[in-house]
């Protein structure tokens, strides 16, 4: 169980209203006092949560004026992704789908850069990681394989020597890791491709960017369609009831 602070809970509740459209872009937030009353928390907790939201560019704070909501699709950065993927303890299938699509687009390019800039120096560490992936057996093996696959890509991203790709990977990993167990059934097909990971390792170690690009696509693409289909089954309508927008009569 992850212990969560009151400001964390307030952040998630207000974020849900913003993301789900309960409070639209350009609309003012209720006052701190009103939010504290509706949510049953202290005003300092509300203030801290709103400060965090302002730091993630979700709110526009005008001194002496109302605090208004920004369009998160236009202003938010990758640091918001972990908050969007799992909200209220529930995996958001649409966000999970976007994570998988991003991996499929970015992964082959990162692998090509790793082959070009890392090459033979990566062979030992990548081989060791793939061996650990292959050795994962028994209960919990699907989760352990995901951990080893993340480690594999962590090494590849390091070798790509790209700050932008590193920051993207950090955000994707931060979003992905809390959902490892939830994703285990649908990720089993991909992380079980030990042979495909070995082909990718050989291509990177050989310093062959184009073969590495194709091999990375081979690792990521075959399972993507089935994973996306499984995620579609997880989709469910979100409630539109909004305690934050219901005013007392």
Would you give an account of this structure?
- The chain is mainly α and 249 residues long.
- The protein folds into two domains: 6-76, Winged helix-like DNA-binding domain superfamily/Winged helix DNA-binding domain (Arc Repressor Mutant, subunit A, Orthogonal Bundle), CATH 1.10.10; 83-234, Four Helix Bundle (Hemerythrin (Met), subunit A).
- It has helices at 6-19, 32-39, 43-55, 72-75, 81-85, 93-117, 123-135, 141-160, 163-176, 180-191, 194-205, 209-234; strands at 59-61, 67-69, 86-87, 90-91.
- The strands form two sheets. It has a two-stranded antiparallel ribbon. Strands 3-4 form a two-stranded antiparallel ribbon.
- Helix 6 runs antiparallel to helix 12 and helix 8 packs antiparallel against helix 9.
- The longest helix is centred in the last third of the chain and has 26 residues, at 209-234.
- The chain is elongated and about 60 Å long.
